[in-house]
Amino acid sequence: MKTKTKVVLTLGLLSLLALGGLTQSKYVRHSTIEMDITHETDPKPTGVANPNNSNDASGWIAYTVPKNGYYAVQLRGGDGFGGSNLGGRGGVVEAVYYFTQGTELEYSAGGKAGWIYNGTYNYTGGRSDYSAGGNGTPSATAGADYQGGGGGGASALRLKTSGNLLVVAAGGGGSALQKTYRPLFTDYPPRKGGDGGSLNGSGTQIGVAGQNDRSNQGKNAYQGGAALLGSGGGGGGLGDTARGGGDGGGYSDTGSGDGGTSLVQGGGFAVTALTTAHRTLFAAKLSIAGTNFNFTSTAGSGNSLGIAGQARITFLYSEDQAEHTNIPNIYK
User: Fold this and answer.
1) Distance (Å, whole) CA 204 – CA 1
2) Cα 308 to Cα 311: distance, rounded to the nearest angstrom
3) 80, 149 Cβ separation under 8 angstroms
4) Would you state the pLDDT for residue 218?
């Protein structure tokens, strides 16, 4: 949406047509000319999505607000690791901010947790420039297939100068175990990691708890506790609230990691929810052709490959009016 400003110039109209077919006078008075002086181009969306075969963080990426207006901020945390769709999904946070021109921001996308790539197992947590996911712990009795999965890294947006946080999208927790284990003819199936908190608006949201016996201590970036069959790591996020999986003393007590906590706050700027109506109205601006950005209310596949964190800022519209001064009538 672009606000157009028309300037009306009153020049005065005195179109003197001489009788008998004489030519029009060069003196023109009381005429009006409308000019559209709003020719600036809307800022293009900017964002980053980490490669799907990497758990690296993107680094902090600087963004200077180019003009006053309303901007959609969309972040997604990295998925936790777990086979058979058992890794926790990264949280999704979406909000609309009114930013003023020249405001300096920086954003970062967290990595997904460890993966199986070209036959190599990697159970480390997803990296993050704000809060990384915890590592999964190996099984004490079985091979790498039974190790717990890592938690996903958090994505974040902050003010560049002060470092004050505006948005955190938490990572998902890692699953406990990677395969069904059958000692003594008893099934001990994998357990799903908790999803990171998802927010549409302001406030905080705690992530979903992982399944079975998490550690009652630990925090974001906390690795799974020692377990006979491997425990999942917690997802990265706000306030060190996620927990890694724990071990209550037996096979059945092996736990997965909790999802991390997400945040949206004003930081001195007006902030509202990115509603369904907003998404529909600005669909062309919010979508970026040719990329794998995935922002939905419950984004993330949670599968063995997972989806890495994502971050994007999109200009929506401005209510500012272009200013002008009166142009004197030169035809006098």
Assistant:
1) 30
2) 10
3) yes
4) 40
- 308/6 Cα distance (integer angstroms): 46
Q: Are 8 and 324 in contact (CB under 8 A)?
A: no
- 176 pLDDT band (50/70/90 cuts)? confident
Render pLDDT for 102-156 as a digit per residue (tens, 0 to 9): 999 999 999 988 765 555 667 788 999 999 998 887 776 666 667 788 899 999 9
Burial of 125 (0-12, 13-18, 19+ CB in 10 A): buried
Distance CA 87, CA 195 (A): 8
Q: Which residue has the tokens 């001064």?
A: 325
What is the amino acid identity at position 165?
Answer: L
> Which tokens in the block code for residue 160?
């560049």
Question: 251 phi and psi, to 5 degrees?
Answer: -55, -45
Query: Per DSSP, what are the bridge partners of residue 92?
Result: 76
Distance CA 239, CA 176 (A): 23
Whole-angstrom distance, CA of residue 123 vs CA of residue 143? 13
Q: What pLDDT score does 177 carry?
A: 72
* Spatial distance between the Cα atoms of 332 and 326, rounded to a whole number of angstroms: 16
Domain assignments of the chain as residue spans, ordered by start: 6-36, 41-321
- 185 φ/ψ angles, rounded to the nearest 5 degrees: 65, 20
| Between 138 and 276, the higher pLDDT residue | 276
3-state secondary structure the chain: CCCCCEEEEEEECCCCECCCCCCECCCCCEEEEEEECCCCCCCCCEEEECCCCCCCCCCCEEEECCCCEEEEEEEECCCCCCCCCCCCCCCEEEEEEEECCCCEEEEECCCCCCCEECCEECCCCCCCCCCCCCCCCCECCCCHHHCCCCCCCCEEEEECCCCCEEEEECCCCCCECCCCECHHHCCECCECCCCCCCEECCEEECCCCCCCCECCCCCCCCCCCCECCCCCCCCCCCCCCCCCECCCCCHHHCCCCCCCCEEECCCCCCEEECCHHHHHHCHHHHCCCCCCCCCCCCCCCCCCCCCCCEEEEEEEECCCCCCCCCCCCCCC
pLDDT at 147: 75
**What single letter denotes the amino acid at residue 38?**
T
